[in-house]
Amino acid sequence: MNLKGKTAVVTGGSRGIGKAICIELAKAGANVAFLYAGNTEKANETLSEMQEINKSDKFKAYKCPVNDPDEVKKAFAAIISEFVSIDILINNAGITRDKLAVMMSPEEFAEVIDVNLKGTFNCIRQTLPVMLKNKSGKIINISSVSGLTGNPGQANYSASKAALIGLTKTIAKEYASKGITCNAVCPGFVETDMTNSFSDNEKILQSIPLKRFAKPAEIARLAVFLSSSDSNYITGEVIRIDGGLAM
User: Of residues 62, 157, 175, 233, which has the active-site annotation?
Assistant: First the structure.
C-alpha cells in the first residue's frame, strides 16, 4: 500500500495501537501528524522510530486532549499550517475506567464518553472542511468488539465504542457523495500495556478461537488498508479483527 504524498492524522499516537498505526503509515510512505494526551517521552519515541523507517517524509507530534474542542481546533489549525492538507484521519485515542455499573460514578462514565466519543467527533469536525475542499478523504474510527457485544465492567467503554459505530455509519452516509469514506475497526484483545496487566489472560485466551491476542501491528495494517486507495469502495463498514472472539 502506497501512501506517498498523503498526510495522515492519528489520535493517541504515542503508544499501543496508535503507535503501531503511526509506524505502519510511515512504512507506507505517508506524512504523519499524531496527537497525544500527555507523555512527551513516549511521543518522542514514536517520532524517532518513524524517522528511522523513513527519513524523507514529515512526522510531527502535537500534545492535545481530544476531549477539549478548543484545543483540538488549535491543534488541527497547526497541522494544516504545517502539512497544508489532511487526507486521512484515524481516531484511535481512548481511555478505560472499568467498574461494574453499580460502582461506577457519573464522572467516570462521562470521562470515558468525553474522550472516546466526543474526542472522535471533535477531530472529525475539524477534519471535514479540509476533506470537503479536497473532495476526498479517509476517516477510520477505532472502536472495539466491546461496542458490539458489551463487556462486564465496561458500561462506559462499551457505550462509547458502540456509539462510535453509529457515528461512523452516519458520517459515511453524509459524506459518501463528497468522496469521503468512513469505516470502523473493532479490535478484540490486543497485546498492549493494558492487557499485560490483566490477571485472567489464560481464561480470556480460552474464549478466543485463535487462542492468542492480536499484535498492535495487525490492527495497524487494517487501518492502513482502509486509508489506502485499495479500500475506495468500502464505507460505513464495521470490521472486526478479534481472532473470532465475537463470531
Answer: 157
